[in-house]
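Researcher: We plan to redesign the surface later, but first we want a full-length starting point. Tokens attached.
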């Protein structure tokens, strides 16, 4: 597995926040025939994009 390029955040109360959304195994981790380009720093956003699943308890399937 390639290293995580995003540092962990120390929360100050003995806990550390590690966002596994930045962890991945690219194709080159499984097969040496693949090349693994590293995206340029210009592709990184400096803002947090908060996303996730929503639950709608009143909706019936």
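Model: Full-length starting sequence:
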């Amino acid at each position: 597995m390639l290293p995580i390029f995003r540092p962990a955040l120390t929360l100050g109360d003995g806990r550390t926040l590690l966002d596994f959304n930045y962890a991945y195994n690219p194709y080159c981790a499984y097969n040496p025939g693949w090349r693994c380009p590293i995206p340029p720093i210009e592709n990184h956003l400096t803002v947090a994009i908060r996303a996730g699943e929503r639950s709608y308890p009143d909706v019936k399937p």
